[in-house]
Amino acid sequence: MKLRSRSRRIMVAALAVAAISGPMRAAAANFGPGSISADLTTFSIPRPPGFRAFATFTGPLNERINTGTPLAGGGTWMAVRGNWLITANSARNACQSNEARLTVDTGRVDVDVTDVLTLNPEVAGKAAGVLVRGLPDGSALAVMYRDTGGGSLNLERLGVGGTMASIDSLGPIASATIRVIAAGDSIRVWLNGTEVISYTLSGADRTTFTSPSTTTVGLISDHDRSTRHDDFRVEAL
Question: C or N: which end of the chain has fewer Cβ atoms within 10 Å?
């Protein structure tokens, strides 16, 4: 009886290994550059619990996005500066010619953030973009599109000032999908699916913008008619 029970356990263990090993090899073959997911129909790799949320800004016209308005998936918005309204299934800054920020605290320093900007070509001097690594005092890193000087996409320090990296001569842009991955001292930026900035923080920037308090991300816009934000997504890494 003991021998039969032991044989049964060995057979079950062998079948379990065989069932897993095939899908595991298939999943590994599906990884792309920077990917951390697999073909979920065959095998999924457990991921550590983290923050994940998104906002498509659907709602009644001119509905206000207030501090405390929830995002889908988790977290709540903080209208740090300005007033934000829903317009045409997007979020816009309702403050005339004043910088507005709409942020969410992820509780994590390393994040992957995406936002879709729609830019009004009739408004000159506009600037808008995405915040990462925000601090309680308002300092943050920002990826900003600015249409001055031929149009540029900049990695900037907010609060302490200065441009860290820039892609110039982009010209007028009607729509832009901006993605930012901040992981450790690495800041990588994509514009419409193409990686355009890869920057490594060092010195004082590294000290400031990798501290445990840099957990805020969000949207920034400087004019109520210049830009709209849509399909905002953030995932903690």
Answer: N
